[in-house]
Amino acid sequence: MVTDMIKSNPAIEDVIEKVLISEEMINEAVERIAADIDRDYSEKNLLLLGILKGSVVFMGDLMKKIKSPLEIDFMKVSSYGAGTTSSGRINIILDLHRSDLSEKDIIIVEDIIDSGRTLSYLVEYLSLNGARSVKTCTLLDKPTRRTVEFVPDYVGYEIPDEFVVGYGLDYDEQYRALPYVGVLKREVYES
Ligand code: IMP
Ligand code: MG
Description:
Elements: H1 2-7, H2 10-15, E1 16-21, H3 23-41, E2 46-52, H4 56-65, E3 70-80, E4 86-94, E5 105-113, H5 117-128, E6 133-141, E7 154-158, E8 164-165, E9 181-184, H6 186-189
Parallel strand pairs: 2-3, 2-5, 5-6, 6-7
Antiparallel strand pairs: 1-9, 3-4, 8-9
Helix pairs in contact: 3-4
Inosinic acid (IMP) is lined by residues 54, 79-80, 86, 110-118, 163-165, 169.
């Protein structure tokens, strides 16, 4: 079904090698993670903290499925420049301005973990800023790409070392609105 959709849209067919995670698979992961979070957070003071911009689609779907009371907030960090390789430095572009972190049980929501630098930095940053607890949730994980040790608490799918786009994930700000996660053709970023 998803492949039919790609075939009928030549612009997308030109850049997507294959669909890696279909809409159905995404929905399954969202339901599973929401149930796990409900099991763990019913007695807590949950703050879902989305990392802009990649997490917005996942965040929107996930928050609708969680039954426990929650608040949402966002931070924006940069580690990637334009392209497919990380610059290795984390910059906070949009910070949290809240005085209630000591009462909050934070789950950071990410689209994907690659080197692990972004999330390990943010977990330490939020802990140092007094959050009551900090856990992490990601739709996708590329465990073979780590440069720092990092194990997320809630994971949708582990994927191989391929550059993917869609469902929030971008290449040069493009393709975030695709409803599935697809592998980007190498020629798109290697030309
Ligand atoms: P890390 O700090 O290296 O773990 O970087 C994680 C961030 O890199 C993610 O939030 C994404 O913005 C970006 N990223 C890593 N892999 C991909 C990919 O395959 N497609 C799109 N963005 C990616
Ligand atoms: Mg991101």
